[in-house]
């Protein structure tokens, strides 16, 4: 890896899945001694929660595993993100479609599903835990940890 690699994680509201992905990925990058080689952020396809911290349940379940999401604030994907980031990774197919519709053609190669980097989860999406209970937030963390490890391995090979 030469220059810093920039990664943007995207879900719908940027309060559950994508801030969790940002926090977990950042933690794992730091643990791997690669902190200076990455620019990591998250955003939502919708602006429902702009400026708000992550969902309290996301923060609570992440904290149980040693991840601190408290400094993050929700933001909506901006047109400039498609140029600024090397990888724009959606949590599910709906949000990927929204990104594809908004992304200029010359940057579409940067778009993908985050779970494409997972090796153990057996799912191609990170399910939205917002309307469910605690088990959903734990499952999200399991999936995100798996995909984060795969993404780090993938990017190390580049």
Task: Summarize the biggest pleated sheet.
Answer: 4 strands, parallel
**Biggest sheet, strands in spatial order?**
2-1-3-4
Over all CA atoms, what is the radius of gyration?
14 Å
Shape: globular
State the distance separating the first and last CA atoms.
6 Å
Helical residue percent band = 25-40%
Which secondary-structure class do the elements indicate?
Answer: alpha/beta
How much of the residues is beta strand, in percent?
A: 5-15%
Low-confidence runs of at least 5 consecutive residues: none
User: How is the quaternary structure best described?
Assistant: single chain
Q: How many distinct helices?
A: 5
Describe the structure.
The chain is 39% helix and 13% strand. It is built from five helices and four strands, in the order E-H-E-H-H-E-H-E-H. The longest helix has 23 residues, at 134-156.
For the structure shown, list the relevant keywords.
158 residues; alpha/beta; four-stranded parallel beta sheet
Outline of the structure:
This protein is α/β, with parallel strands linked by helices and 158 residues long. 39% of the residues lie in helices and 13% in strands.
Per-chain topology:
Blueprint: E1 5-11, H1 17-31, E2 38-44, H2 56-64, H3 81-84, E3 87-90, H4 93-102, E4 111-113, H5 134-156
Parallel strand pairs: 1-2, 1-3, 3-4
């Amino acid at each position: 890896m030469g220059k810093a690699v920039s990664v943007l994680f995207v879900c719908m509201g940027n309060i559950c899945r994508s801030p969790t992905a940002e926090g977990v990925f950042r933690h794992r990058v730091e643990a791997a001694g690669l902190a200076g080689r990455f620019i990591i952020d998250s955003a939502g396809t919708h602006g429902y929660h702009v400026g708000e911290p992550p969902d309290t349940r996301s923060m609570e379940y992440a904290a149980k595993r040693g991840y601190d999401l408290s400094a993050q604030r929700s933001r909506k994907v901006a047109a400039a993100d498609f140029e600024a980031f090397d990888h724009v990774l959606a949590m599910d197919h709906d949000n990927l479609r929204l990104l594809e519709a908004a992304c200029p053609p010359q940057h579409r190669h940067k778009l993908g599903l985050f779970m494409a980097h997972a090796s153990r989860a057996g799912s191609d999406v990170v399910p939205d835990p917002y309307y469910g209970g605690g088990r959903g937030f734990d499952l999200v963390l399991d999936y995100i940890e798996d995909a984060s490890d795969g993404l780090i391995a993938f990017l190390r090979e580049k």
